[in-house]
Specification:
Alkaline_phosphatase_core_sf, two-stranded antiparallel sheet, 2 domains, alpha/beta, 467 residues, 18 strands, globular, TAT_signal, eight-stranded mixed beta sheet, Alkaline Phosphatase, subunit A
Amino acid sequence: MRETSDGRFENSLSRRAAMQVGAIGAFGLSLEKLLASDAQALNQKSSGQSPKSCIFIHQYGGLSQLDSWDMKPAAPSEIRGPYQSIETATPGFQVCELMPRLAKISEKYAVIRSMTHHMSQHDKANSMLLAGRSKPAEDDPSFGAMVSKLSPSLESIPAHVWLQKYGGGSAPPEHTYLTGGRLGMAYAPMLIGESHTDNPASSDFRVRAFDTGDSVSLKRLEERWQLLQTLQSFPESKSSSAFESLDIYQQQSFDLLHSSDAKSAFDINQEKPSTRDRYGRNPLGQNLLLARRLIESGVRLVNVVAWTGLAAGEKFVSLETWDMHGNANVGIFENGWNGLPFALPRTDIAVAALLEDLSERGLLDSTLVVLIGEFGRTPVISKGAKRVGRDHWPQCYSAMVAGAGIQGGTVYGESDSRAAYVKSSPVTLEDFTATLFKAMNINPASRLSPNGFTIPASDGSPIAELL
Protein backbone atom coordinates (compact mmCIF):
# COMPACT_ATOMS: atom_id res chain seq x y z
CA MET A 1 0.00 0.00 0.00
CA ARG A 2 1.21 3.51 -0.73
CA GLU A 3 -0.14 7.02 -0.25
CA THR A 4 -0.49 9.15 -3.37
CA SER A 5 0.23 12.84 -3.62
CA ASP A 6 -3.46 13.71 -3.19
CA GLY A 7 -3.81 11.70 0.03
CA ARG A 8 -5.42 8.58 -1.47
CA PHE A 9 -4.28 5.01 -0.83
CA GLU A 10 -3.46 2.40 -3.39
CA ASN A 11 -3.08 -1.32 -2.82
CA SER A 12 -2.39 -4.24 -5.12
CA LEU A 13 -4.53 -6.63 -3.04
CA SER A 14 -7.83 -7.76 -4.50
CA ARG A 15 -10.99 -6.48 -2.85
CA ARG A 16 -11.77 -9.93 -1.40
CA ALA A 17 -8.24 -10.35 -0.03
CA ALA A 18 -8.37 -6.86 1.42
CA MET A 19 -11.61 -7.63 3.15
CA GLN A 20 -10.22 -10.81 4.68
CA VAL A 21 -7.06 -9.14 5.92
CA GLY A 22 -9.03 -6.17 7.21
CA ALA A 23 -11.43 -8.42 9.07
CA ILE A 24 -8.54 -10.09 10.88
CA GLY A 25 -6.89 -6.86 11.96
CA ALA A 26 -9.75 -4.46 12.45
CA PHE A 27 -12.07 -6.71 14.39
CA GLY A 28 -9.73 -8.81 16.46
CA LEU A 29 -10.40 -12.06 14.59
CA SER A 30 -7.41 -14.36 14.53
CA LEU A 31 -6.31 -16.07 11.32
CA GLU A 32 -6.79 -19.38 13.12
CA LYS A 33 -10.48 -18.60 13.80
CA LEU A 34 -11.07 -17.33 10.29
CA LEU A 35 -9.61 -20.45 8.70
CA ALA A 36 -11.49 -22.68 11.13
CA SER A 37 -14.75 -21.03 10.15
CA ASP A 38 -14.06 -21.60 6.47
CA ALA A 39 -13.01 -25.18 7.19
CA GLN A 40 -16.34 -25.98 8.83
CA ALA A 41 -18.25 -25.19 5.67
CA LEU A 42 -15.68 -26.83 3.39
CA ASN A 43 -15.61 -30.00 5.48
CA GLN A 44 -19.39 -30.28 5.22
CA LYS A 45 -19.15 -30.13 1.44
CA SER A 46 -16.25 -32.60 1.13
CA SER A 47 -17.79 -35.12 3.55
CA GLY A 48 -21.00 -35.38 1.60
CA GLN A 49 -22.88 -33.57 4.36
CA SER A 50 -24.00 -30.66 2.21
CA PRO A 51 -24.76 -27.43 4.09
CA LYS A 52 -28.47 -26.77 4.34
CA SER A 53 -30.46 -23.59 4.85
CA CYS A 54 -33.49 -22.66 6.91
CA ILE A 55 -36.49 -20.35 6.75
CA PHE A 56 -37.79 -20.00 10.32
CA ILE A 57 -41.29 -18.47 10.49
CA HIS A 58 -42.36 -17.08 13.87
CA GLN A 59 -46.11 -17.04 14.52
CA TYR A 60 -45.52 -14.28 17.02
CA GLY A 61 -48.14 -14.29 19.76
CA GLY A 62 -48.94 -18.01 19.69
CA LEU A 63 -51.20 -19.79 17.18
CA SER A 64 -54.21 -21.71 18.51
CA GLN A 65 -53.50 -25.40 18.02
CA LEU A 66 -57.25 -26.13 18.27
CA ASP A 67 -58.03 -23.94 15.25
CA SER A 68 -55.20 -25.08 12.98
CA TRP A 69 -53.18 -28.32 13.27
CA ASP A 70 -54.90 -30.15 16.13
CA MET A 71 -58.66 -29.89 15.65
CA LYS A 72 -60.99 -31.56 18.16
CA PRO A 73 -64.31 -31.94 16.30
CA ALA A 74 -65.84 -34.16 19.01
CA ALA A 75 -65.17 -31.66 21.81
CA PRO A 76 -67.82 -29.27 23.18
CA SER A 77 -68.32 -26.04 21.22
CA GLU A 78 -66.53 -23.90 23.82
CA ILE A 79 -63.43 -25.98 23.12
CA ARG A 80 -63.59 -26.95 19.44
CA GLY A 81 -64.55 -23.49 18.16
CA PRO A 82 -66.59 -22.72 15.02
CA TYR A 83 -64.35 -24.24 12.33
CA GLN A 84 -64.66 -27.57 10.57
CA SER A 85 -61.89 -30.11 10.04
CA ILE A 86 -60.91 -30.98 6.48
CA GLU A 87 -59.00 -33.95 5.13
CA THR A 88 -55.44 -33.54 3.93
CA ALA A 89 -53.57 -35.55 1.30
CA THR A 90 -52.38 -37.75 4.19
CA PRO A 91 -54.96 -40.37 5.24
CA GLY A 92 -56.24 -39.80 8.77
CA PHE A 93 -54.66 -36.34 9.07
CA GLN A 94 -57.05 -33.38 9.29
CA VAL A 95 -56.50 -29.66 9.62
CA CYS A 96 -58.62 -26.53 9.89
CA GLU A 97 -60.81 -25.56 6.94
CA LEU A 98 -58.98 -22.20 6.84
CA MET A 99 -55.88 -24.02 5.50
CA PRO A 100 -57.03 -25.69 2.25
CA ARG A 101 -53.78 -25.04 0.34
CA LEU A 102 -51.62 -26.65 3.00
CA ALA A 103 -54.09 -29.52 3.31
CA LYS A 104 -53.51 -30.42 -0.35
CA ILE A 105 -49.72 -30.63 0.03
CA SER A 106 -49.43 -32.39 3.40
CA GLU A 107 -46.89 -34.80 1.90
CA LYS A 108 -44.38 -31.94 1.97
CA TYR A 109 -44.40 -31.30 5.72
CA ALA A 110 -44.70 -32.85 9.17
CA VAL A 111 -46.73 -31.60 12.13
CA ILE A 112 -45.74 -31.96 15.77
CA ARG A 113 -48.79 -31.94 18.05
CA SER A 114 -46.93 -32.40 21.33
CA MET A 115 -44.76 -29.31 21.78
CA THR A 116 -44.63 -28.42 25.47
CA HIS A 117 -43.07 -26.11 28.06
CA HIS A 118 -44.28 -24.16 31.09
CA MET A 119 -43.74 -20.47 30.30
CA SER A 120 -46.88 -18.47 29.45
CA GLN A 121 -45.18 -15.05 29.29
CA HIS A 122 -44.54 -13.89 25.71
CA ASP A 123 -41.10 -12.32 26.00
CA LYS A 124 -39.62 -15.16 28.05
CA ALA A 125 -41.23 -17.86 25.91
CA ASN A 126 -39.90 -16.17 22.75
CA SER A 127 -36.41 -16.04 24.27
CA MET A 128 -36.69 -19.75 25.02
CA LEU A 129 -37.77 -20.54 21.46
CA LEU A 130 -34.95 -18.46 20.00
CA ALA A 131 -32.30 -20.18 22.13
CA GLY A 132 -33.91 -23.62 21.96
CA ARG A 133 -33.66 -23.94 25.74
CA SER A 134 -36.19 -24.12 28.56
CA LYS A 135 -33.89 -22.05 30.76
CA PRO A 136 -31.78 -19.85 28.47
CA ALA A 137 -28.87 -17.88 29.84
CA GLU A 138 -28.77 -14.13 29.30
CA ASP A 139 -26.07 -14.44 26.65
CA ASP A 140 -27.30 -17.55 24.87
CA PRO A 141 -27.12 -17.16 21.08
CA SER A 142 -30.24 -17.67 18.99
CA PHE A 143 -30.70 -20.65 16.70
CA GLY A 144 -29.89 -18.41 13.73
CA ALA A 145 -26.66 -17.20 15.29
CA MET A 146 -25.60 -20.76 16.06
CA VAL A 147 -26.36 -21.89 12.50
CA SER A 148 -24.35 -19.04 10.99
CA LYS A 149 -21.45 -19.96 13.30
CA LEU A 150 -21.53 -23.71 12.65
CA SER A 151 -22.52 -23.60 8.98
CA PRO A 152 -21.29 -20.27 7.59
CA SER A 153 -22.23 -19.04 4.15
CA LEU A 154 -19.48 -19.12 1.54
CA GLU A 155 -21.17 -16.46 -0.60
CA SER A 156 -20.72 -12.67 -0.57
CA ILE A 157 -23.97 -12.29 1.31
CA PRO A 158 -24.88 -12.36 5.02
CA ALA A 159 -25.30 -15.82 6.49
CA HIS A 160 -28.20 -14.72 8.69
CA VAL A 161 -31.04 -12.33 7.84
CA TRP A 162 -34.01 -11.31 9.99
CA LEU A 163 -37.15 -10.09 8.19
CA GLN A 164 -39.59 -7.89 10.15
CA LYS A 165 -38.44 -6.80 13.57
CA TYR A 166 -40.49 -7.88 16.56
CA GLY A 167 -42.82 -5.13 17.79
CA GLY A 168 -45.23 -4.71 20.68
CA GLY A 169 -45.22 -5.70 24.32
CA SER A 170 -44.72 -9.39 23.57
CA ALA A 171 -41.29 -8.91 22.02
CA PRO A 172 -38.26 -10.61 23.54
CA PRO A 173 -35.24 -8.44 24.41
CA GLU A 174 -33.40 -7.35 21.27
CA HIS A 175 -30.14 -8.90 22.43
CA THR A 176 -31.75 -12.36 22.20
CA TYR A 177 -32.16 -12.16 18.43
CA LEU A 178 -30.41 -9.09 16.99
CA THR A 179 -26.96 -9.97 18.37
CA GLY A 180 -24.95 -13.17 18.36
CA GLY A 181 -25.13 -13.56 22.12
CA ARG A 182 -21.89 -14.89 23.54
CA LEU A 183 -20.75 -15.74 20.01
CA GLY A 184 -20.37 -12.05 19.23
CA MET A 185 -21.81 -9.62 16.72
CA ALA A 186 -20.18 -11.48 13.84
CA TYR A 187 -23.17 -13.83 14.04
CA ALA A 188 -25.92 -11.23 14.43
CA PRO A 189 -28.53 -11.16 11.69
CA MET A 190 -28.85 -8.47 9.07
CA LEU A 191 -32.17 -6.83 9.99
CA ILE A 192 -34.61 -5.89 7.23
CA GLY A 193 -37.91 -4.35 8.35
CA GLU A 194 -37.43 -1.88 11.18
CA SER A 195 -41.14 -0.97 11.36
CA HIS A 196 -44.51 -2.23 10.16
CA THR A 197 -44.33 0.00 7.07
CA ASP A 198 -40.86 -1.28 6.21
CA ASN A 199 -41.76 -4.50 4.43
CA PRO A 200 -41.73 -5.71 0.81
CA ALA A 201 -45.52 -5.47 0.51
CA SER A 202 -45.20 -1.67 0.75
CA SER A 203 -45.05 0.15 -2.57
CA ASP A 204 -42.01 2.19 -1.50
CA PHE A 205 -40.05 -0.69 0.07
CA ARG A 206 -36.32 -0.57 -0.54
CA VAL A 207 -33.43 -2.32 1.20
CA ARG A 208 -31.17 0.46 2.43
CA ALA A 209 -28.30 -1.75 3.59
CA PHE A 210 -26.39 -1.02 0.38
CA ASP A 211 -26.59 2.76 0.72
CA THR A 212 -23.29 4.53 1.37
CA GLY A 213 -24.65 7.95 2.32
CA ASP A 214 -24.70 11.09 0.25
CA SER A 215 -21.53 12.54 1.75
CA VAL A 216 -19.30 9.46 1.42
CA SER A 217 -18.51 7.90 -1.94
CA LEU A 218 -17.88 4.20 -2.42
CA LYS A 219 -14.31 5.00 -3.42
CA ARG A 220 -13.74 6.96 -0.23
CA LEU A 221 -15.12 4.09 1.86
CA GLU A 222 -12.58 1.78 0.24
CA GLU A 223 -9.79 4.17 1.12
CA ARG A 224 -10.93 4.34 4.74
CA TRP A 225 -11.03 0.54 4.90
CA GLN A 226 -7.50 0.26 3.56
CA LEU A 227 -6.31 2.91 6.02
CA LEU A 228 -7.84 0.92 8.85
CA GLN A 229 -5.87 -2.12 7.73
CA THR A 230 -2.67 -0.08 7.74
CA LEU A 231 -3.27 1.21 11.26
CA GLN A 232 -3.97 -2.27 12.53
CA SER A 233 -0.76 -3.59 11.01
CA PHE A 234 1.32 -1.63 13.51
CA PRO A 235 2.15 -3.81 16.56
CA GLU A 236 1.59 -0.97 19.00
CA SER A 237 -2.04 -0.53 17.92
CA LYS A 238 -3.06 -4.14 18.65
CA SER A 239 -6.83 -4.60 18.95
CA SER A 240 -8.21 -1.59 20.78
CA SER A 241 -11.75 -1.25 22.10
CA ALA A 242 -12.34 1.41 19.46
CA PHE A 243 -11.69 -1.07 16.69
CA GLU A 244 -13.66 -3.78 18.45
CA SER A 245 -16.69 -1.50 18.80
CA LEU A 246 -16.91 -0.90 15.06
CA ASP A 247 -19.96 -2.40 13.41
CA ILE A 248 -19.12 -6.00 12.62
CA TYR A 249 -20.92 -5.76 9.31
CA GLN A 250 -18.03 -3.70 7.95
CA GLN A 251 -16.33 -7.06 7.48
CA GLN A 252 -18.81 -7.69 4.69
CA SER A 253 -19.63 -4.17 3.60
CA PHE A 254 -17.22 -3.83 0.68
CA ASP A 255 -18.04 -7.23 -0.76
CA LEU A 256 -21.72 -6.43 -0.42
CA LEU A 257 -21.44 -2.95 -1.86
CA HIS A 258 -19.61 -4.30 -4.90
CA SER A 259 -21.73 -7.42 -5.30
CA SER A 260 -24.46 -7.14 -7.88
CA ASP A 261 -25.60 -10.64 -6.90
CA ALA A 262 -26.22 -9.58 -3.30
CA LYS A 263 -28.11 -6.47 -4.33
CA SER A 264 -30.17 -8.52 -6.73
CA ALA A 265 -31.09 -11.05 -4.04
CA PHE A 266 -32.72 -8.34 -1.92
CA ASP A 267 -34.58 -6.80 -4.87
CA ILE A 268 -38.01 -8.42 -4.75
CA ASN A 269 -39.16 -6.25 -7.65
CA GLN A 270 -37.27 -8.61 -9.95
CA GLU A 271 -39.95 -11.22 -9.32
CA LYS A 272 -42.81 -11.59 -11.79
CA PRO A 273 -46.10 -10.02 -10.66
CA SER A 274 -47.71 -13.46 -10.94
CA THR A 275 -45.16 -14.89 -8.49
CA ARG A 276 -45.75 -12.08 -6.04
CA ASP A 277 -49.49 -12.67 -6.33
CA ARG A 278 -48.94 -16.37 -5.70
CA TYR A 279 -47.41 -15.67 -2.28
CA GLY A 280 -50.00 -13.02 -1.40
CA ARG A 281 -49.60 -9.25 -1.47
CA ASN A 282 -49.25 -8.89 2.28
CA PRO A 283 -46.21 -8.57 4.61
CA LEU A 284 -45.91 -12.30 5.36
CA GLY A 285 -46.37 -13.40 1.75
CA GLN A 286 -43.83 -10.94 0.40
CA ASN A 287 -41.34 -11.57 3.22
CA LEU A 288 -41.48 -15.31 2.48
CA LEU A 289 -40.87 -14.63 -1.19
CA LEU A 290 -37.90 -12.45 -0.23
CA ALA A 291 -36.71 -15.25 2.08
CA ARG A 292 -36.78 -17.68 -0.85
CA ARG A 293 -34.70 -15.26 -2.93
CA LEU A 294 -32.17 -14.95 -0.10
CA ILE A 295 -31.87 -18.70 0.44
CA GLU A 296 -31.41 -19.14 -3.30
CA SER A 297 -28.53 -16.64 -3.18
CA GLY A 298 -26.64 -18.35 -0.36
CA VAL A 299 -28.08 -16.99 2.90
CA ARG A 300 -27.95 -19.79 5.45
CA LEU A 301 -30.86 -18.80 7.71
CA VAL A 302 -33.75 -16.34 7.35
CA ASN A 303 -36.05 -15.57 10.28
CA VAL A 304 -39.47 -14.21 9.33
CA VAL A 305 -41.99 -12.73 11.75
CA ALA A 306 -45.41 -13.92 10.53
CA TRP A 307 -47.21 -10.58 10.55
CA THR A 308 -49.98 -10.81 7.97
CA GLY A 309 -50.75 -7.08 7.74
CA LEU A 310 -53.95 -5.08 8.11
CA ALA A 311 -57.48 -5.54 6.86
CA ALA A 312 -59.04 -2.74 4.81
CA GLY A 313 -59.61 0.39 6.89
CA GLU A 314 -57.67 -0.83 9.92
CA LYS A 315 -55.08 1.24 11.75
CA PHE A 316 -51.85 -0.36 12.90
CA VAL A 317 -51.86 -1.69 16.47
CA SER A 318 -49.11 -4.29 16.72
CA LEU A 319 -47.20 -7.05 14.91
CA GLU A 320 -48.59 -9.58 17.42
CA THR A 321 -50.91 -11.16 14.86
CA TRP A 322 -51.34 -14.45 16.70
CA ASP A 323 -51.93 -13.11 20.23
CA MET A 324 -55.68 -13.58 19.86
CA HIS A 325 -57.12 -12.79 23.30
CA GLY A 326 -59.91 -10.65 21.90
CA ASN A 327 -58.37 -7.57 23.48
CA ALA A 328 -57.75 -5.49 20.34
CA ASN A 329 -61.23 -4.81 18.89
CA VAL A 330 -60.91 -8.02 16.87
CA GLY A 331 -62.09 -11.37 18.21
CA ILE A 332 -60.22 -14.56 17.48
CA PHE A 333 -62.98 -15.67 15.09
CA GLU A 334 -63.50 -12.22 13.50
CA ASN A 335 -62.16 -11.01 10.15
CA GLY A 336 -59.51 -8.47 11.14
CA TRP A 337 -55.74 -8.28 11.58
CA ASN A 338 -55.89 -10.09 14.95
CA GLY A 339 -58.42 -12.74 13.92
CA LEU A 340 -58.08 -16.21 12.45
CA PRO A 341 -60.34 -15.65 9.38
CA PHE A 342 -57.96 -12.90 8.27
CA ALA A 343 -54.55 -14.21 9.35
CA LEU A 344 -54.75 -17.97 8.85
CA PRO A 345 -55.83 -18.03 5.15
CA ARG A 346 -53.04 -15.56 4.31
CA THR A 347 -50.56 -17.80 6.11
CA ASP A 348 -51.97 -20.84 4.34
CA ILE A 349 -51.45 -19.22 0.93
CA ALA A 350 -47.97 -17.87 1.71
CA VAL A 351 -46.51 -20.99 3.34
CA ALA A 352 -48.00 -23.32 0.73
CA ALA A 353 -46.57 -21.11 -2.03
CA LEU A 354 -43.17 -21.19 -0.33
CA LEU A 355 -43.11 -24.99 -0.06
CA GLU A 356 -44.28 -25.44 -3.65
CA ASP A 357 -41.85 -22.84 -4.98
CA LEU A 358 -38.88 -24.35 -3.14
CA SER A 359 -39.87 -27.79 -4.42
CA GLU A 360 -40.20 -26.62 -8.02
CA ARG A 361 -36.77 -24.98 -7.85
CA GLY A 362 -35.10 -28.07 -6.37
CA LEU A 363 -34.46 -26.28 -3.08
CA LEU A 364 -36.82 -28.01 -0.66
CA ASP A 365 -34.44 -30.93 -0.02
CA SER A 366 -31.78 -28.47 1.10
CA THR A 367 -34.02 -25.94 2.87
CA LEU A 368 -35.64 -26.50 6.25
CA VAL A 369 -38.91 -24.60 6.75
CA VAL A 370 -40.18 -24.09 10.31
CA LEU A 371 -43.56 -22.64 11.33
CA ILE A 372 -44.10 -22.22 15.07
CA GLY A 373 -45.22 -19.78 17.76
CA GLU A 374 -43.84 -19.36 21.26
CA PHE A 375 -46.81 -21.35 22.66
CA GLY A 376 -50.43 -22.27 21.89
CA ARG A 377 -53.80 -21.09 23.15
CA THR A 378 -56.15 -22.21 25.91
CA PRO A 379 -58.55 -25.08 25.20
CA VAL A 380 -61.56 -23.13 26.48
CA ILE A 381 -62.65 -20.04 24.57
CA SER A 382 -62.91 -17.00 26.83
CA LYS A 383 -64.21 -13.43 26.75
CA GLY A 384 -61.36 -10.95 26.44
CA ALA A 385 -61.43 -7.29 27.37
CA LYS A 386 -63.37 -6.49 24.18
CA ARG A 387 -63.99 -9.66 22.16
CA VAL A 388 -63.91 -13.44 22.35
CA GLY A 389 -60.47 -15.05 22.36
CA ARG A 390 -58.14 -17.75 23.64
CA ASP A 391 -55.40 -17.06 26.17
CA HIS A 392 -51.78 -18.25 26.46
CA TRP A 393 -51.18 -22.00 26.74
CA PRO A 394 -47.65 -23.52 26.64
CA GLN A 395 -48.52 -26.96 28.02
CA CYS A 396 -49.44 -28.37 24.60
CA TYR A 397 -49.21 -26.80 21.14
CA SER A 398 -48.26 -27.56 17.54
CA ALA A 399 -45.47 -26.85 15.07
CA MET A 400 -44.91 -27.54 11.37
CA VAL A 401 -41.56 -28.51 9.84
CA ALA A 402 -40.74 -29.26 6.21
CA GLY A 403 -37.87 -29.84 3.80
CA ALA A 404 -34.25 -30.79 4.46
CA GLY A 405 -35.09 -34.49 4.73
CA ILE A 406 -38.04 -34.08 7.12
CA GLN A 407 -40.51 -36.95 6.60
CA GLY A 408 -43.51 -35.32 4.96
CA GLY A 409 -47.03 -36.51 5.65
CA THR A 410 -46.07 -37.25 9.25
CA VAL A 411 -47.93 -36.35 12.44
CA TYR A 412 -45.76 -36.73 15.53
CA GLY A 413 -47.02 -36.74 19.09
CA GLU A 414 -50.55 -36.66 20.43
CA SER A 415 -52.56 -34.33 22.63
CA ASP A 416 -55.47 -35.23 24.89
CA SER A 417 -59.14 -34.84 23.92
CA ARG A 418 -59.02 -31.05 24.48
CA ALA A 419 -55.52 -30.36 23.08
CA ALA A 420 -54.72 -29.20 26.59
CA TYR A 421 -51.94 -31.61 27.58
CA VAL A 422 -49.58 -33.96 25.81
CA LYS A 423 -50.84 -37.54 25.68
CA SER A 424 -47.80 -39.11 24.01
CA SER A 425 -44.30 -38.23 22.79
CA PRO A 426 -43.75 -34.80 24.41
CA VAL A 427 -41.34 -32.53 22.54
CA THR A 428 -39.31 -30.03 24.51
CA LEU A 429 -37.68 -26.96 23.00
CA GLU A 430 -34.35 -28.74 23.39
CA ASP A 431 -35.50 -31.77 21.38
CA PHE A 432 -37.17 -29.56 18.79
CA THR A 433 -34.02 -27.50 18.24
CA ALA A 434 -31.79 -30.60 18.16
CA THR A 435 -34.05 -31.95 15.41
CA LEU A 436 -33.65 -28.75 13.41
CA PHE A 437 -29.87 -28.92 13.74
CA LYS A 438 -29.83 -32.56 12.66
CA ALA A 439 -32.00 -31.81 9.62
CA MET A 440 -29.49 -29.12 8.63
CA ASN A 441 -26.54 -31.55 8.89
CA ILE A 442 -25.26 -29.77 11.99
CA ASN A 443 -24.23 -31.83 15.00
CA PRO A 444 -26.41 -30.68 17.95
CA ALA A 445 -23.54 -31.53 20.29
CA SER A 446 -21.20 -29.01 18.60
CA ARG A 447 -19.48 -26.98 21.31
CA LEU A 448 -20.00 -23.23 21.31
CA SER A 449 -18.27 -22.13 24.49
CA PRO A 450 -15.08 -20.03 24.35
CA ASN A 451 -13.04 -23.00 25.62
CA GLY A 452 -14.49 -25.28 22.94
CA PHE A 453 -15.38 -28.03 25.40
CA THR A 454 -18.60 -27.00 27.17
CA ILE A 455 -22.04 -25.65 26.18
CA PRO A 456 -23.31 -27.69 23.25
CA ALA A 457 -25.44 -26.04 20.59
CA SER A 458 -28.33 -28.13 21.94
CA ASP A 459 -28.91 -30.36 24.94
CA GLY A 460 -31.80 -32.13 23.22
CA SER A 461 -32.19 -35.35 21.27
CA PRO A 462 -33.28 -35.26 17.63
CA ILE A 463 -36.65 -36.85 16.85
CA ALA A 464 -35.66 -39.80 14.67
CA GLU A 465 -39.20 -40.38 13.39
CA LEU A 466 -39.15 -37.01 11.65
CA LEU A 467 -35.78 -37.42 9.93
